[in-house]
Amino acid sequence: MRITPLDIRRQNFRKIMRGYDVDEVEAFLEMVASAWEELVEDLDKAEKELSVLRARAADFDRMEGAVRDVLVQQQQSAAQARKEADREAELIIMDAEVKASNLISEARERVQVLTETIRELQDRRLSVLSQVRSFVDSQNRMLDMEEERIKSEMVPEEEKLPGEEDGDSPLLELTEL
To answer: Is residue 30 part of a domain?
Structure first.
């Protein structure tokens, strides 16, 4: 049973002989009732504050749960973003390696083609030189043959041409030819 300040104030005691002083008992009861009243008011205030604090604590618990959920989602998102970035980086590296390999292959093919072209040009050059040498050699032979023919047909100076007499000058001058 709960005792209220009003219960304390209305409390009546039997009167007996040699009992307590009634005024003192009533004064004490009034003082106890006032103190009780203050305690009840403080208790009501404390219960209201407790209720408010519990509500706030519940709000904080909900907010903490929400914040925790958000943090977990952010961590998961960050982990997912890292994974995607790693995958994309791997793809970029693989693509770069493939492109580099292709460029190296193309460069090697170009070097091979240029090397073959240089060899072909060197072969042609040697062939042209050989043809020129052959032409020059044949022309030298022809010149040698012509020189020999001219030398063989030359009339010695001491010999006279038919119908030529001593002191005659040549019939035609070279300038007249």
So the answer is: yes
Structure tokens at 80: 């997912």
Domain span holding position 50: 5-12+19-148
What separation in angstroms does the CA of 30 have from each of 4, 8, 14, 115, 131?
12, 8, 18, 123, 146
Is residue 112 in some structural domain? Answer: yes
Distance in angstroms (rounded) separating the CA atoms of residues 39 and 45: 10
Single-letter code of the amino acid located at 24: E
Domains contained in the chain, number: 1
Give domain status of residue 163, yes or no.
Answer: no
In the structure encoding, which two tokens stand for residue 30, read together? 């009034």
pLDDT, tens digit (0-9, with 9 covering 90-100), for 17-71: 777 777 888 888 888 888 888 888 899 999 999 999 999 999 999 999 999 999 9
